[in-house]
Amino acid sequence: GAVVSQHPSWVICKSGTSVKIECRSLDFQATTMFWYRQFPKQSLMLMATSNEGSKATYEQGVEKDKFLINHASLTLSTLTVTSAHPEDSSFYICSAITKQPEAFFGQGTRLTVV
Amino acid sequence: EDKVVQSPLSLVVHEGDTVTLNCSYEVTNFRSLLWYKQEKKAPTFLFMLTSSGIEKKSGRLSSILDKKELSSILNITATQTGDSAIYLCAVEGGSEKLVFGKGTKLTVNP
Question: What is the pLDDT of residue A54?
Fold first, then answer.
């Protein structure tokens, strides 16, 4: 089946720095990718829809200047958490949609801001 | 290695039928099990289960967790064509990551 690779799996950064998370579709082209955030004991919350070659569509309440999304190619979307703060510590996960359509999820990234 | 297995992979039924989707898991330090419905866009959340034996219901959908059997089922009664989708099961374990199953593709024919 299709594979979505997310990198890094774990990242610890200092408050005020920026962190980039990559999401790659390894064996298919994904015109659309989704970025989620999970809070403790809650389900995944959709942050934004990333479309190749155009601006991402952010869900209500998600700061687009803080969570920069770039979908520069059909196989890569990146999420950059800018000026990270401890409250940004969370589990971030991406998914990519195939033409069928089916969704495949990355392994997720555990971000800890200290 | 944490693992989530869903069955069946694909299911075709007629409107009005009742379906049961299965999810079994092997995770270290189980925390929760989640069900999602995935259509053409981002998967939508259905249920989060943390306790064994407590049924959660939402309209025609219901789900229950069996920690002893390391499994969960998702029931859909009186199916409609709008229920056609891929149903995803995910489990959060001790690694604090979500592990997804491959999904069950449900097709409901008129």
Answer: 82
When the pLDDT of each residue in chain A is averaged and rounded to a whole number, the result is: 88
DSSP alpha helix (H) spans, A27-112: none
What is the chain A residue with the closest CA to B50? A41
Residue of B nearest to A36 (CA): B42
Strands B10-14 and B32-38: unpaired
Mean pLDDT confidence for A35-52: 81
DSSP string covering B83-97: G-EEEEEEEE-TTS-
**Are the beta carbons of B56 and B47 closer than 8 angstroms?**
yes
How many A×B Cβ pairs under 8 Å? 49
Higher pLDDT among residues B102 and B42, named by residue: B102
Measured CA to CA, the distance from residue A10 to residue A19 in angstroms comes to 11
Give the span between the Cα atoms of A11 and B13, in whole angstroms: 45
Q: Check if B61 contacts A (Cβ < 8 Å).
A: no
Does position A46 have pLDDT exceeding 70, yes or no? Answer: yes
Closest CA to B12 of B88, B66, B85: B85
pLDDT over 70, % of chain B: 94
A75 within 8 A of A24, measured Cβ to Cβ? yes
Q: Which residues of B touch A103 (CB under 8 A)?
A: 38, 42-43, 86, 88, 103
CB contact under 8 A, B34 and A44: yes
To the nearest whole Å, the CA of B2 is away from the closest chain A CA by 11
